[in-house]
């Protein structure tokens, strides 16, 4: 019932709020270990969230874990996605907005008990990669509802303009963080657009 009503009951990443501004926050996130997959949505019949199943299988959310132990790994939130235009090298991770010729990188942040990549069970599917993320600073705007391409585009534009106006240097593409399963009532969903800054 809580999942339908938007209650987040799983582990979420720890961060420090460095500044609260009109409509956004500046946050400092600590290091984490992530499981990620990068894919062309056309591999999944155009489904921009097609990588979710690969990651869910790795942690055992859809049955037996598909990792070397096999060890069931607790689900966390958010699921982070990033869309990479064709030909661009992937530096971090991020959104759910896709167009022809783009790749999507989707990440699950692993539970905090995994402090190094080698602590996490090795994926059976080689498309799933385990990596460490260092400390990062983001400008973040939170919103509810369905994170459609148009909504995300507008949130990114507004946040980028606010950050630049307030003197922050943007150093990468935006990430889209979604905290709830798709059956959560749209007005009760928690989403965030995150833009990395210096």
Automatic annotation (TrEMBL):
Entries under Pfam families matching the protein: SOUL
InterPro entries: Reg_factor_effector_dom_sf, SOUL_heme-bd
Domain of life: Eukaryota
PANTHER family noted in UniProt: HEME-BINDING PROTEIN-RELATED, SOUL HEME-BINDING FAMILY PROTEIN
Family, as annotated: Belongs to the HEBP family.
Descriptive protein name: SOUL heme-binding family protein
Organism per entry: Trapa incisa
């Amino acid at each position: 019932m809580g999942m339908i009503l938007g209650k987040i009951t799983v582990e979420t990443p720890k961060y420090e709020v460095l500044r609260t501004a009109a409509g956004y926050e500046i946050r400092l996130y600590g290091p984490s270990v992530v499981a990620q997959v990068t894919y062309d949505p056309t591999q999944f019949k155009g489904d921009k969230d097609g990588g979710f199943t690969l990651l869910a299988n790795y942690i055992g959310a859809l049955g037996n874990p598909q990792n070397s132990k096999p060890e069931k790994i607790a689900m966390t939130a958010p699921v982070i996605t990033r869309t990479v235009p064709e030909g661009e090298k992937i530096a971090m991770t991020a959104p759910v907005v896709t167009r022809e010729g783009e790749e999507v990188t989707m990440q699950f942040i692993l539970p905090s008990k995994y402090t190094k990549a080698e602590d996490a069970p090795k994926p059976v599917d080689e498309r799933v990669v385990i990596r460490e993320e260092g400390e990062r600073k983001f400008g973040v705007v939170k919103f509810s509802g369905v994170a459609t391409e148009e909504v995300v585009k507008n949130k990114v534009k507004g946040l980028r303009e606010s950050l630049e106006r307030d003197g922050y240097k943007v150093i990468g593409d935006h990430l889209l963080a979604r905290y709830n399963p798709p059956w959560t009532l749209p007005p009760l969903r928690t989403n965030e657009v995150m833009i990395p800054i210096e």
